[in-house]
Design a protein that fits this description.
mainly alpha; 4 strands; 7% strand
Length: 138
């Protein structure tokens, strides 16, 4: 099964929106806060939101056929945020500053953009073009 450009753009837009709403709804100087940062101060609700929003971002990336490396990186960022966010008070403050949903969404959006730039529909589950590479030591 292949995804059309329109389907990929729709997935891309939904991932970008959730990342932006989660971590960048309100900007205060160099800082931003979103739904995730506000809800992190409500016990249980912040963890639930973080898990659901993060799951949505990663699952949409999988639907778009983003590579496992990119999906794994995004899931690791969001998972760390969710786990640390469960710590009372310090975790909530951490969630306000560690914008993992925005970063994870940006990784997936970038991978989808690269696929769209390459042109043509992409087979579902095909390896992605965007993979994190270690810098060349030479």
């Amino acid at each position: 099964m292949t995804k059309t450009d329109a389907e990929l753009r729709s997935i891309r837009d939904s991932v970008a929106l959730v990342g932006r709403l989660s971590d960048s709804l309100l900007h205060i100087g160099p800082f931003s806060i979103g739904i995730d940062g506000v809800l992190s101060w409500v016990p249980g609700l912040g963890d639930l939101y973080s898990t659901l929003a993060g799951g949505f971002i990663v699952l949409q990336g999988a639907r778009a056929g983003v590579s496992g490396a990119v999906l794994g990186g995004a899931a690791l960022l969001i998972g760390c945020r969710t786990i640390v966010g469960a710590v009372p008070i310090a975790g909530s403050a951490f969630a306000d500053l560690f914008t993992a949903h925005k970063w994870g969404a940006a990784m997936i959006v970038r991978a989808i953009d690269e696929r769209l730039a390459a042109g043509g529909p992409v087979p579902a589950g095909a390896p992605g073009a965007a993979v994190w590479m270690a810098p060349n030591p030479s």
